[in-house]
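lol ok so funny story. i was supposed to be doing the assay writeup but got distracted and ended up predicting the structure for this chain instead. priorities right. anyway since i did it might as well share w the group, maybe its usefull for someone
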Amino acid sequence: MAAGTRERILSEARGLLVRGEIATVGQIAAAAGVSRTSFYRAFDSRDELLAALDVQPEPAARERILDAALDMVGEGGLTALSMDDLATRSGVSRATLYRLFPGKPALFANLLRTYSPLEPVSRVVESMRDQPPDEVMPEIARVVFKAVYGPGAPRIGVLRAIFLEVSTLSPDAEEGGRDLAGMIFASVGGYVMSQMSEGRLRRMHPLLAMQSFIGPIFFHLLTRSMAERLLGLDIDGEQAVVELARAWLRAMKPDEEVDSNG
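and the output, tada:
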């Protein structure tokens, strides 16, 4: 009897997933004509059922979903994005989409992790935490440039759309970006504060210090193509962002160091 119940649950769950259903425990139990109690006698959890069905998402599904989501956010923003349309556009079922990304906040958080410079910058700071700002900040600028213009980097227009979502702070973007914002402030902000405490950087609010660093760099990246075409800008991109980082370092020198150097 128990074996028959298990097989019936497996059969109905497989049918639901093939049709693209999210397939909650309640839906599976109802389709199989059993109670939730009977379901949990047969399987300890929904994850155990999925493992028994061998329906783990294909490795390429995540990449296809994120690629499609990146384009859709660039076209209309996160608020207008339809998860059903995203599943269709990326060629996966709704079940696969929701197993990988339970909602828009999770989707947006993964877009930020995959396509923005936030995580690479945090890794740089963690690996160079004991080094002085003259070495760390130019390296951060290089990493940001490579994340935007390096091989395989997304189009700058799409990145602009992602950061526009952050600045408008829709509920989904706020929830999705909260952890990453905390991570970047803890790493870069923590490093900047420690350098201020040690007298290597001018004291000011660390968030303003970070904004004054990334603002000119990001503006350069956003307008670089236009400046090259219309204004004849002729300077290597990595060199340009490093020069901006060094200008920030000069502005952030403590007052006593500026006075002693004339």
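DSSP finds 15 helices and no strands in the chain. The chain has three domains: 2-53, 59-102, 114-260.
back to the writeup now i swear
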